[in-house]
Amino acid sequence: MINRRNLIGAGALGVAGAAATFSTPTAGAVLATPAIGRNRRRFNMVTTWPKGLPGLGTAAERVAQRISDMTDGLIEVKVFAAGELVPPFESFDAVANGSADMYHGAEYYWTAKSTGFPFFTAVPFGMTAQEIMGWIDFGGGQELWDELSGQFGIKCIQGANTGHQMGGWFRKEIRSLRDMAGLRMRIPGQGGEVLRALGGASIALAGGEIYQALQTGAIDAAEWVGPWNDYSLGFHREAPYYYGPGFHEPGASLAVGINRGVWDSLTASEQAIFKAACEAVNHETLGEFTYQNSVHLDLLVNQHNVQMRSFPEDVVKRMSEAAYDVRASAGRSGVEKRIYESFEKSLKLMRGWAGVSDGVYYTARALGK
């Protein structure tokens, strides 16, 4: 999170850095205006989000706009929605090989690259939004993330957070653990591994493909984000039962990944601007999701007759057991082991604090009107 003084400071650095790029005029030449005389740079950002998707798609657009605003337009970032330049799940490779400069997406989409990546988005029964920010910014997470993504030639920064997500949309009710057997569900990352441990089948689908899969019966259930985004994609029209809580994503952190060559080509002040832009949007989206999820949950329940449900006790218990095993198996050696150990250490510390702060407070607040 940043304050106004830091933001102004970062902008000032950008102006100072940009001023150093003035070209020296030749004899007799007319001096150019500052906006024309300074060097401009343009970058492409690919995303894993459908075009115009509230919250997620707009977060990418906001990062780009803030970078432009803080550099007086000297650095321009053009955003491409999923499929416009590359397919959504190819965003990582596009940035790694230099065919795109940046991506905005969820790190657990790259699990096939390394089992360490999901820890930087969300893992089942893991960290809330505030906790993952605490770990990455103050608990050693960013240094480990730099080491992991650096192996692929990428520099990553937190660039949005959805807050707590929902458990998903189901075509049929889940009454016991037996109903999870054979369930075909769109759910990525370690959440998908937990589902498989319960006897279900995890299906990998990009956001723009989920509705049709529900409509045709190709899947029985799907998780996406929460009421705000889920409402905009219309899942309630095909699956009437909305389950929570979202055991798999208690606070999903999203990332801006930047090609390492591009990152290294930036001046120190330009790098500070990129970080400040991402941090501002990370803060902004968490507040926006918190408010808009509240608004759209009310719409779903009171205007669209969505049936709210909680997972049965035996399902939650088995999920919790499987989640611990899945997290541990992801960190067996190398940098992945150090990521897992750092994550678990910070989770244990912050879980203790949450137990005497937020958790107790929410229970007490519910007793009021």
UniProtKB/TrEMBL annotation:
Keywords: Metal-binding, Signal
Binding residues annotated for substrate, in chain numbering: 165, 186, 223, 249
Annotated GO CC locations: tripartite ATP-independent periplasmic transporter complex
GO MF annotation terms: metal ion binding
Matching Pfam families: DctP
Residues annotated for Na(+) binding in this entry: 224
Superkingdom in the source lineage: Bacteria
Bilayer-crossing regions: none
Signal listed as a keyword: yes
UniProt GO BP: transmembrane transport
InterPro entries hit by this protein: DctP_fam, SBP_TakP-like, TAT_signal, TRAP_DctP_sf
Name under which the protein is recorded: Solute-binding family 7 protein
Biological classification of the source: Bacteria, Pseudomonadati, Pseudomonadota, Alphaproteobacteria, Hyphomonadales
